[in-house]
Amino acid sequence: MPDLAQILIYPIKSLDGVAVTQAKVLKSGALEHDREFAMVDEQGRFVNGKRNPKIHLLRSSFDLNARTVSLQIQDTESTQVFHLDEERTALEAWLSHYFGKTVQLQQNIFQGFPDDTNAPGPTVISTATIETVASWFSEISTNEMRRRLRTNVEIANVPPFWEDQLFGEADNIIQFQIGSIQFEGINPCQRCVVPTRNSLTGEAYTDFQKIFITKRQESLPSGVAASRFNHFYRLSVNTRIPESQADKILQVGNEVNIQDTVKA
């Protein structure tokens, strides 16, 4: 039986994640605290790995109960701890100094800052998929690939690319359930430049996208809605969770069941 192996939350968009054993579903369908904060510049643009490779040299850890973030520049010993609510100004000043430009921290406690606002639910992937994709590249471990992909929900006891059955043709929605929570699979997640870089150094892997696209196309399971792949630089599944599921708890160990296909 497929089950939920891991939940990863990213409290500040683009920074390191934190593994949790359970997470509450918000009314929007997002997981509580996931991408709750985002760093933006003076033009209101995200400060992220797509635009600023210095992101990769910034280590962060979170205490969600204490509402604190610890920041450390890679290969240094100094760590700075900030309260996310009470020391926001000091945190913004530290980030601005690090990035060399004005950085503000925006907050959205209702939906966070998902990449796909049409599908703000947690992204879903299988452990076997992460292991398989890592095997396509020399010197990239499973844990390193996990850090590069930055997905929320990881499913165990299934074969590689099992999650590709969680989306259908463009006019269909696949309904599935994790524990007591109803999910809707929407589409395969389009990837950006971030997975091409080492998560700790920012160093680019030569021909990463070319290798990924070739292997992904070769590995696409039979019966998958191939029409959803205008290109094959896609991996994991974007989801929605209906508003009726708000306040339910997603728990590691929950069983996963695929249910129905309905019209979008």
Automatic annotation (TrEMBL):
Domain MOSC: 88-259
Highest taxon of the lineage: Bacteria
Gene Ontology molecular function: any one: catalytic activity
Regions that span the bilayer: none
Family annotation (InterPro entries): MoCF_Sase_C (IPR005302), MOCOS_middle (IPR005303)
PROSITE patterns with a match to the protein in the record: MOSC
Protein's name according to its UniProt entry: Putative Fe-S protein
Organism phylogeny: Bacteria, Bacillati, Cyanobacteriota, Cyanophyceae, Coleofasciculales
